[in-house]
Amino acid sequence: MVNGNIISKVDAIIHPLKLNHEDYLKDGHLLNNELNRGLKSTKDSSVKMYLTYVRSLPNQKERGVYLALDLGGTNIRVVLIEFLPNKINVIDQQCHEIPATLFFSSGSQLFDFIAENVIQFAIKNKLAGVRVALGFTFSFPSVQHGLAEATLVAWTKNFMCPGVVGYDVVQLLKQSLKRKMDRSIPYIDVVAIINDTTGTLIYGSLKDSNCKIGLIVGTGSNCCYVEQLQNIDKWPYNYSEPNQVIINCECGAFGDNGVLDCLATSWDRTIDYESLNITKQIHEKIIAGMYLPELLRRIMLTLVEKGLLFNGLAPIELFVPYSIKTKFMSLIDLDDGRKDLTNTKEALKKIFKYFKCNETDLRIIFSINNTITRRSAYFVATALWTLAKRIDQVNVSVAYDGSLICKHPHYKRWVKEKVNEFAQNEGIEKVIGFVEAPDGSIYGAAIVAAICYREKRPKFIKKNGKVYEITRF
Ligand code: BGC
Fold this sequence. Notes:
The protein is α/β, with parallel strands linked by helices. It contains 14 helices and 15 strands. The radius of gyration is 23 Å and the shape is globular. Beta-D-glucopyranose binds at residues 72, 139-141, 156-157, 195-197, 216, 218, 220-222, 250, 252, 284.
């Protein structure tokens, strides 16, 4: 039997998480202001609108063999990719979990670990004596001064390695590769660095030429889009064709100047105060898979303290920060639209070893979980709609990737529904398509490396008195 009295008390407590359409309109309006400010000057906006220097999208004329490296979450991935006419062939790939200690170790330890993995992978693929171009996906806020130059501005997510912020990460990677490379192994040349959103957009645009927005909702969250050069006051170069560039919005930082405080709750504030990057990545902390389960845990704890959940007795796991995994939130949301809450029960059994829970508890946990995940999806939809309106075409597609948006059973649908609601309410003729770009972040890095060589591809390259063959494939 569900206790209606408890349910209404809980509803009142979690009410601030249930934003209405007016709130999302306000969010979109505030975001649009920040986007405009960011295009004028990076320092005056919380949304930095970093220039990526990627101006050309793939045109199927890319050829050759490239390495791609991805650093952005809990793993590093290396892929060897071959571009054939009408086909991208993954020759080999490798994924390594980053040892937990490295998240806080020095930058050189982190980059040495990465370089070691890349070199071992190249050796395994018999690339000795070959000069191979590498595209590097580095998914943290970085200022770029060119296609292969990126200074890290701040770590986000769970990284905090000293000695990297303020440095060019391409140089750090090159130094580590140099330290590890000896005569018998390949010459790995880092030719491009991109953000995961950029990679996703580039990969998506191979599938759908209307793709003009890249979206990641996984451990972290962020968007990028294609902007016309004449709209970018801070564009430092000439306006030659192609007259466009991909902007890495870094919209996870939206709200770092306090503009989102009116929409955030006390739980959002506590997550921020107790995070590794206090007052930073406010938008990301409301949206991303790294923070949502922590939000769920904190709200449950509040309700236990008030005697409204688990009869006021907290299971021990509830006291451990970041102990709940995002996959359990997806499992709980499988009960969306269903009467029985068997998946919620199943998830709770996995989260808590010993727990006693009644039907009221199940209803409450389902409701919190559903509310915060929908709120995340609606914030994402608002950002997409705000970006889509800046793009001067009726059909705009969004290439997306990331564990939350790809693996959650309803997230994508909620994003689409909210975007459609915006379109209908505002009467704007715009059709937003969605293109899944699985592993786009890493494929995109290889594609950008290939785009660099689309026009002009030397057969040999001389380096330190040695001649390397560019490709043998
Ligand atoms: C980073 C972005 C990245 C996003 C998704 C954020 O924490 O700042 O650069 O695109 O995570 O991985």
